[in-house]
Amino acid sequence: MTKRKIILDCDPGHDDAVAIMMAARHPAIELLGMTIVAGNQTLQKNVRNALNICQHLDLDVKVYAGCDRPLVVEERHAGDIHGQTGLDGPVFQPLIRKTEDKHAVLYIIDELIHADEKITVVAIGPLTNIAMAIRLQPAIIEKIDQLVIMGGSITDGNVTPAAEFNIYADREAARIVFNSGLDIVMCGLDVTRKAACTQQVIDSMAALNNKAGYLFRDMLEVYNRNQNRVFGITAGPLHDPVTIAWLIDSSVLTLKECYVDIETAGYSYGRTNCDFYWKAKKANNARVAVDIDVDRFWQIIRECLSLY
Ligand code: BDR
Ligand code: CA
Asked: Ligand 1, from 42, 128, 166: best to mutate by most atoms within 8 Å of Cβ?
């Protein structure tokens, strides 16, 4: 099997952590490096969480710390969902692992510029690192095979009535990225909300009786409690893993092409406007996920976790 080379840009985060577990072990993917951005929590906390996951699961992945704040707006976190640490729930051993010295944005540029073949970038946090890399070295655009994003929504948001967290947290960065000419796959709330993690799903992962299954349980039980307190639901959406599931098996999502732009003013600040009816008369710049095969999705996650 030829492996798809990816860079994973993330802000772990419970659902990011599951995406990491998937990307780090699945034979269809070669995880070249992990870049961290401020988002669910401060950069420092997100980096710590990434290193804890790698150490706990013995993952041989380099971790690079990136931007510690959005391009223009004030930093915004999702501590209500992911807790004070950004990954409340699991208890880890004292942390020994360290990040690489290079800044994540410089790593992204170097990895792409020196690559012999195109690389896929997966972005499951605010798009600050990606926008910075594009601005600093636009030549990377040619080297990116696809940019697979968890972010946005065709319909309503989860931070404001209009905006989803990853886009809202750095909407100017999102605008740069969506207008960069990259081949974008957008996995928004429209599909990720359908990936609702029930207690039955949690139990089935824990029943794998391995480190990954137990970590999944310890994280998702806390995540679901927080989702219940904030949104009144019992099964929280497992947003970020949808991107990796699509890389493993593209049949899991139904995609529809359109032009997507980011609202950067007014009440709907951070909204992803998906122009399916060509009202803006602009060339399509994204394939937006409109449906998900939920059973296949959980099957893929289980396959990934069983590799531990
Ligand atoms: C996104 O926001 C974060 O809290 C999650 O990790 C996910 O990337 C969902 O809106
Ligand atoms: Ca995330």
From this structure: 166
Does position 2 have pLDDT exceeding 90, yes or no?
no
Q: How far apart are CA 294 and CA 170, in angstroms?
A: 29
Q: Relative to the CA of 192, which ligand 1 atom is closest?
A: 9
Q: Which residue has the tokens 């824990």?
A: 206
Distance between start and end Cα atoms, the chain: 19
Q: Which residues are catalytic?
A: 11
Q: Relative to the CA of 237, which ligand 1 atom is closest?
A: 9
Query: How many domains is the chain partitioned into structurally?
Result: 1
pLDDT in tens, 145-173: 999 999 999 999 999 999 999 999 999 99
**Is any ligand 1 atom within 6 A of the Cβ of residue 14?**
no
pLDDT tens for each residue of 68-94: 999 999 999 999 999 999 999 999 999
Helix axes 294-305, 241-248, angle to 10 degrees: 90
- pTM of the predicted protein model: 0.98
Smallest Cα–Cα separation from 166: which of 271, 21, 274, 276?
271
Domain containing residue 151: 4-305
Res. 113 pLDDT band, cuts 50 70 90: very high
Q: From the centroid of its chain, how far is CA 151?
A: 8
Give the ligand at the shortest distance from the Cα of 158: 1
Q: Which atom of ligand 1 is nearest to the CA of 16?
A: 6
Contact 161, 40 (CB under 8 A): no
Residues in the chain: 308
Give, as residue ranges, everything with CB less than 5 Å from ion ligand 2.
11, 13, 16, 124-125, 240
Distance CA 211, CA 207 (A): 11
Residue from 159, 187, 239, 243 whose mutation best tests the ligand 1 pocket (most atoms within 8 A of CB): 239
CATH of the domain at 197: 3.90.245.10
